[in-house]
Amino acid sequence: MNKIVWEEAQHQTESLATHWITKEGSVIPVIRYWTSTLALHVISSGFFGQRLEWDDYGTSKALPPGHQLTFDKALSTMLRRLATVFMTPRALLGKLPGKMFKEAHEGFTEVTKYSQELRARIEENIEDLVGKRNKTVLGATECERS
Question: What is the pTM assigned to this prediction?
């Protein structure tokens, strides 16, 4: 898993630098936004097996069946509204008025669906781990990439 994270961090950092130079005119307006998004990209690939690309921002992607948000939009929405998700009882999260609660509920629901899909993929590939030396549950996502 460390190798995957390292390689993805390298790829994402190089892609981000290229994005800054070509799309942002070498100006980095809010470094906190970019570094937190960089971390999300690495986590997305390392844990969920879904590579996010910098040039995809601002483009519309087809929604996967059964989803209301793309993976990257769900993950960023959930993390942006993380405090609301943790502070609001689940039974109220989708029922309270206001944009903050609606976004928090939508992001949480979608990330939960994507996590359940990841779990299902891992369960399908768990048998591939039997002969591997360093067995981890997340290693099942690596089997899928191989």
Answer: 0.69
